[in-house]
Design goal:
With about 140 residues, this protein is an alpha+beta fold. The protein contains two helices and four strands; from the N terminus they run βαβαββ. It has a single domain, classed as 60s Ribosomal Protein L30, Chain: A, CATH 3.30.1330.
């Protein structure tokens, strides 16, 4: 299978491990990003992928880029992958099915739109116990 690219427009404020958010605000943001992952996976008609490696690329506005650590935004990508599981892309997001997301900083946004770009490489991984016969429901 070839690489699948899923582009998700910024659904809410980014979720960063450096933020000290009230639990309600964190939950709200995670729910919004999770729903975005579910919606965009369905729009792309992604279902039943084999185990995959996922690279998440942040496309941010230029003014925000001087000292960005992409790994801090892992929680944003995690919520999106949870939504993709809800949409049936994988049966779950355990290490048997999803490796990553590996965070990267993409090119700066030139048009004012911030994005989360997921680069999904199906069947790039072989995990213990995976026979290649498993399919998502």
């Amino acid at each position: 299978m070839t690489e699948i690219v899923l582009t998700i427009p910024r659904a809410d404020e980014w979720v960063s491990v450096n933020q000290r958010l009230h639990w309600r605000e964190l939950r709200r943001r995670n729910r919004t990003w999770r729903e975005a992952g579910k919606i965009w996976a369905r729009k792309a008609k992604l279902r039943g992928l084999p185990p995959s490696h996922v690279v998440a690329e942040l496309v941010m506005l230029t003014k925000r880029r001087n000292r960005i650590d992409p790994a801090n935004y892992q929680d944003t990508a995690k919520a999106v992958i949870d939504g993709m599981v809800d949409a049936g892309v994988w049966p779950d997001d355990s290490s048997q099915w999803v490796i990553g997301p590996d965070m990267r900083l993409g090119d700066p946004s030139s048009d004012g739109h911030e994005l989360l770009i997921l680069r999904i490489n199906p069947a790039e991984i072989r995990t213990p116990g995976w026979t290649g016969q498993e399919t998502a429901p």
